[in-house]
Amino acid sequence: MAKATLKTQATPKSVAAFLKTVDPDRRADCEAIAKMMSKATGATPVMWGTAIVGFGKHHFKYASGREGDWFLVGFSPRKANLTLYMTGGFKRRAEFLKKLGKHTGGAGVGCVYIKKLADIDQGVLRAMIEDAVKAPGFNHS
User: Fold this and answer.
1) What CA–CA distance (Å, rounded) separates 106 from 86?
2) SS3 category, 56
3) 88-134 tens-digit pLDDT
4) DSSP state letters, 80-130
5) How far apart are CA 122 and CA 112, in angstroms?
6) Which of 56, 43, 53, 36 is nearest to 121 (CA)?
7) Which range has the worst mean pLDDT, 39-48, 54-63, 110-119, 128-137?
8) What is the pLDDT of residues 26-40, one digit of tens each?
9) Domain segments of the chain: what residues?
10) pLDDT band at 87; cut points 50, 70, 90
């Protein structure tokens, strides 16, 4: 089966320009998350679609043969929450989620939602990001 054509693709748009459009109250949190993700991945941030900032590359291939490319970790400053994405999902990170602090989503879904960094343990978030980057069984090309 050919690579999947995902709806959300990497774009050449400027991450810095995008972050300047984020509400100033939320921008500092986005910049802090970007710094954590950049440090963990060693990657420059890339815009995915119009509102997701992704770091690193992950090639996935399902048992069905369907495959595609995605980022290792990323975030999106949505209107209601900061959305965090991590390779391998959150089901495998249940222990981290118990210690993270105030959040929604997680174990049964592909992302975690937080209102602001002050609501969570940033050390636990860093550990989750690092875990996603070194997750076994993933081709991080």
Assistant:
1) 10
2) coil
3) 766 667 888 899 999 988 766 678 999 999 999 999 999 999 988 88
4) S-EEEEETTTTGGGHHHHHHHBS-EE-TTSSEEEES-GGGB-HHHHHHHHH
5) 14
6) 36
7) 128-137
8) 999 999 999 999 999
9) 29-133
10) confident
Contact 36, 72 (CB under 8 A): no
Going by the DSSP 8-state scheme, the letter that residue 7 receives in this structure is S
Hey, what amino acid is at 77?
P
Q: How far apart are CA 90 and CA 107, in angstroms?
A: 5
Q: Which two tokens stand for residue 74?
A: 């990323």
User: Given the structure tokens 């954590």, which residue do they identify?
Assistant: 36
Q: Which of 130, 127, 122, 128 is nearest to 40 (CA)?
A: 130
Tokens of 29: 């949190």
Nearest CA to 59 among 4, 127, 123, 130? 4
pLDDT surpasses 90 at 141: no
CA dist., res. 58 & res. 6, Å (int): 13
State the Cα–Cα distance between residues 140 and 31, nearest whole angstrom: 24
